[in-house]
Amino acid sequence: MKLDELKQSFNSLWDSVADGWQRLRASAAGALTRFKPGEDARLPAKNEVDDDAYLPSHGWSMLGGDVFEDDRRLVVRLEVPGMEKEDFAIEVRDDALIVRGEKHFEREGTEGRWRVLQCAYGSFRRVVPLPVPVLADKAGASYRNGVLKIELPKATPGEPARLTIKVD
Amino acid sequence: MNEKTAVTKGSHTAAGEAALIPPVDVIEDSTGITLYADLPGVPKDKLNLQVEADSLTIEGEVGLTIPEGMEASHAEVSLPRFRRVFTLSKELDPAKVSAELKQGVLTLRIPKAEHAQPRRIEIKVD
């Protein structure tokens, strides 16, 4: 039994369960994501920005994610505001969903002084473990209000697995 | 403009609920300030912008997170909120604020008041 599966199943014991619906929570540790600007990114240099915490080389951002499950499908929600639909690359593997993307720094009006620069820009990669096998070719994704939503039909429809832990 | 120190310790909405602090980018030029804030999941009708005296408050509530067709197991579901408060300097004109929300990014433009804008002085030479 993989550690991730065990973690997720353990979390779900404490969540309320209703017929055909069970919510899994992505591990919070996976939410802090690193963004790496590419060679052609036009981020301002450090001395052009008044924000002490700013670094043009890379940034970090909370890329919150949720995984929902019912008897037919998994739904993954990832919060990545400010992207264009075309800048996402989504890959489905046996046990994980891999979302890669690039958030461009496009700010018109280069005149002016940056006082605060906290948002993260550049390429990121987020891996979301999937508790059950899914049909990759039937998956669908949409991007709205800055949230990427990916729907994955289960390969074997059925109630979400429940893990019973015996206490000695 | 600067931030009220209370914000760095954790933000609370008017109702006393804890809220997330959204990251922002702020650029200032001679005509005003442009602010960008990451508010993923907040639809237009759940975004609240308020100016009171010299204080600008950005508040947003995330729209329903549970996908359609999936039932919530219990009626009360806690919705994440964003909140951030800024102090506006006197030279900004809050009455002329313009805002745009696109794919979870709020773009706020606050111009400087007329009297604070740089002015060219015409010199007449006889």
Describe the structure.
- The complex is a heterodimer of chains A (168) and B (126).
- With 168 residues, chain A is mainly beta.
- Chain A has one domain (3-153): Immunoglobulin-like, CATH 2.60.40.
- Helix content of chain A is 7%, strand content 39%.
- Chain A is built from one helix and twelve strands, in the order H-E-E-E-E-E-E-E-E-E-E-E-E.
- Chain A has one helix at 3-14, and strands at 17-18, 21-24, 32-35, 59-62, 65-70, 73-79, 88-92, 96-103, 113-117, 122-129, 140-144, 147-153.
- In chain A, strands 1-2-5-6-12-11 form a six-stranded antiparallel beta sheet.
- In chain A, a hairpin with a 2-residue loop joins strand 11 and strand 12.
- Chain B is mostly beta strands and 126 residues long.
- Chain B has one domain: Sandwich (Immunoglobulin-like), CATH 2.60.40.790.
- Chain B contains one helix and ten strands.
- Chain B has one helix spanning 6-9, and strands at residues 2-3, 11-12, 18-19, 24-29, 32-38, 47-52, 55-61, 81-87, 98-102, 105-111.
- A four-stranded antiparallel beta sheet of chain B has the order 1-8-7-6.
- In chain B, strand 2 (11-12) and strand 3 form a beta hairpin.
- The interface between A and B is large, with 40 and 31 residues.
Oligomer designation:
heterodimer
Strand content of chain B: 35-45%
What is the residue-averaged pLDDT of chain A?
76
Segments of chain B where pLDDT lies below 50 for 5+ residues?
3-11, 72-77
Could you say which structural class the secondary elements and strand pairing of chain A correspond to? mainly beta
Specify which chain pair forms the largest interface.
Answer: A-B, 40 and 31 residues
| Shape by Cα distribution of chain B | elongated
The name of the CATH architecture of chain A is: Sandwich
CATH class of chain B: Mainly Beta
Unreliable segments of chain A (pLDDT under 50, ≥5 consecutive)? 1-29
Instruction: Output the strand order for the largest sheet of chain A.
Output: 1-2-5-6-12-11
What profile does the largest beta sheet of chain B have? 4 strands, antiparallel
Q: Order of helices and strands of chain B, N to C?
A: EHEEEEEEEEE
Q: What is the radius of gyration of chain A?
A: 19 Å
Beginning-to-end CA distance, first to last residue of chain B: 43 Å
